[in-house]
Design goal:
The relative contact order is 0.17. The longest helix is centred in the N-terminal third of the chain and has 23 residues. The protein is an alpha+beta fold. Helix 5 runs antiparallel to helix 6. Strand 9 and strand 10 form a beta hairpin. It is built from 7 helices and 13 strands.
């Protein structure tokens, strides 16, 4: 009877331990991050960066300025956790000013290119806000982006949006984040998304090769990023603009 009582107590203890272990650890439906219940939601070592930080998103957008050209390139993969939902999404848009007579996306002499990484609905909400700011401040992209970043940071609704934007026109390239940052690169190269570090490092290494154009630098860099980042594929979309020439160069060409 004593042995039976010990066995019964041991079995009940094991069942209780197993049930507690099953209830303590669970796998997040959004990714492979493991969280602990009843503690402080500490992220485990094996969690992915795309889930752990809102600054990392499952895509790659790259912008390169070189030799009078502005090229923005992005992949087309849409991921939901570990599943690829769509391979050819359009993550780059070209916004033409309302005053422009040539409202064509194939025109490379004007307009603004916008690329986004993050939630699609959030990105389109920000794009609409950016267009309204550009209409309010025509020809002033930097000011439009600053005003958008101010609203993004302070508005109770907008601050919940999880996306990052790259914006470029013939004069300047800018990166916008939900922290209120409006960043301009010192070397004409910007990138956002989960593969941004790979693409940016490759672009900076390739930019000094004189034979490569801005589009060729962007394409080779994106190919490297797609080989290293599982959330980036090789279905690239490209938009190119002509960079505005300085007034000194224009005056010299007229004299010649």
């Amino acid at each position: 009877m004593a042995a039976f009582g010990v066995t019964r107590a041991y079995s009940s203890n094991m069942n209780r331990v197993l049930s507690q272990a099953a209830a303590t650890t669970y796998r997040s439906a959004r990714g492979s991050a493991v969280y602990s219940i009843g503690r402080t939601n500490t992220r485990a070592f094996g969690s992915t960066a795309a889930v752990a930080s809102p600054d990392w998103h499952g895509t790659t957008i790259l912008c390169v300025r070189k030799n009078g050209k502005v090229c923005m390139m992005g992949d087309g993969q849409v991921s939901m956790g570990s599943m690829v939902v769509k391979p050819n999404a359009k993550k780059i848009r070209k916004i033409m000013p309302k005053t422009s007579k040539l409202n064509s996306e194939e025109d490379t002499t004007g307009g603004t290119i916008v690329g986004f990484a993050g939630s699609t609905a959030d990105a389109f909400t920000l794009l609409e806000r950016l267009e309204s700011k550009m209409d309010e401040y025509p020809g002033q992209l930097t000011r439009s982006c600053v005003e958008l970043a101010k609203g993004w940071r302070t508005d109770k609704y907008l601050r919940r949006l999880e996306a990052s934007l790259l914006v470029a026109d013939e004069n300047v390239s800018l990166e916008l984040t939900g922290n209120g940052d409006v960043l301009e690169s010192h070397d004409g190269i910007l990138s956002v998304g989960s593969g941004s570090t790979f693409a940016m490092a490759a672009a900076r290494a390739l930019k000094d090769i004189p034979e490569l154009s801005a589009e060729e630098v962007a394409r080779r860099s994106m190919e490297i990023a797609s080989d290293m980042c599982v959330y980036t594929n090789k279905s690239f979309m490209v938009e190119v603009l002509d960079e505005k020439k300085p007034e000194e160069e224009e005056s010299k060409e007229k004299k010649d």
